[in-house]
Amino acid sequence: MRSADAVTLLRVPLILLLAYMVFIKFSALIDILLLAIIFIMDALDGFYALKEASRGTLGFYTYIRSAFGNAAAKARVAALKKRVKGIAPYGPRLDVAGDRVIEYTLWIMFTYFHIVPLIILLLVVVRHSFADALMGAKGTSSKMKTRFAAVIYSSNVWRGGINIVKFVTFAYLVLVYVSSYPIWIGYILIGILFTYIMLRGAAEIYESLKS
Q1: Higher model confidence: residue 85 or residue 110?
Q2: For the chain, which end, N or C, has fewer CB atoms within 10 Å of the first or last residue's CB respectively?
Q3: Closest to 46 in 3D by CA, of 33, 31, 58
Q4: Rounded-to-integer distance, Cα 133 and Cα 140, Å
Q5: Which of helix, strand or coil describes residue 2?
Q6: Residues 45/4, Cβ–Cβ less than 8 Å
Q7: Distance (Å, rounded) from C-alpha 115 to C-alpha 112?
Q8: Using the 8-state DSSP alphabet, how is residue 115 labeled?
């Protein structure tokens, strides 16, 4: 098994463990630390996939620099992404599946706790279902051709931003449930995250129908 796939699969039992820990109101600090580890692992599986495609020559520094717009690093990473598709075409789709398990577990958990409105959960599921199906038929979402999708979905600012907003939102919801933090701040964060997700979903659907 590829290291990248092992990291992706390891995230699944970890998110289920986290769900149980939050359910029993275990230490909020440890819950948030585990959540952070799960989010960091999302970046690591991408790095390991590219490192294997480069036969071990890709360094983490180069990988990080590509995320911040360094032209040489971006070109190196882009070339390796094409090689990954040839080596393990299932890899990107497995990564998406892992991401969905993580996200759905978090949304469902906090909906069950009566923190997230049910309609938000349902709309997120509908958004992901259609966007994933259309982009899966296209092949990959790693390189967008239309300008709207390239800006809203593929740009490093938006890609990094969605992960930061997800972590902050769900980390705060842990505090709401476990430590009784004010829920109104959670509603603001949920609204921001939901808007972010819907915009990126619109970009994916627009890309799949236009290209």
Answers
A1: 110
A2: N
A3: 58
A4: 11
A5: coil
A6: yes
A7: 8
A8: S
pTM, 2 dp: 0.84
pLDDT 10s digits, 8-65: 889 999 999 999 999 999 999 999 999 999 998 887 777 776 767 667 677 776 766 6
Answer whether 8's CB lies under 8 Å from 45's CB.
yes
Helix (H) or strand (E) segment spanning residue 66: helix 60-67
Cα angle 173, 174, 177 (rounded to 5 degrees) comes to 85
184 vs 132, higher pLDDT: 184
pLDDT tens for 128-160 read 988 888 776 665 555 566 665 555 665 666 677
In sequence order, the 6+-apart residues with CB closer than 8 A to the CB of 191 are none
Is the Cβ–Cβ distance between 98 and 11 less than 8 Å?
yes
Instruction: Return mean pLDDT, the chain.
Output: 82
Cβ 70 vs Cβ 159: under 8 Å: no
- Locate tokens 């938000």: which residue? 120
N-term to C-term CA, the chain: 33
Chain centroid, CA 128 distance in Å: 12
DSSP 133-160: HHHHHHS-SSS--SHHHIIIIISHHHHH
Asked whether 207 and 138 are in contact (CB, 8 A), the reply is yes
* pLDDT given at position 138: 66
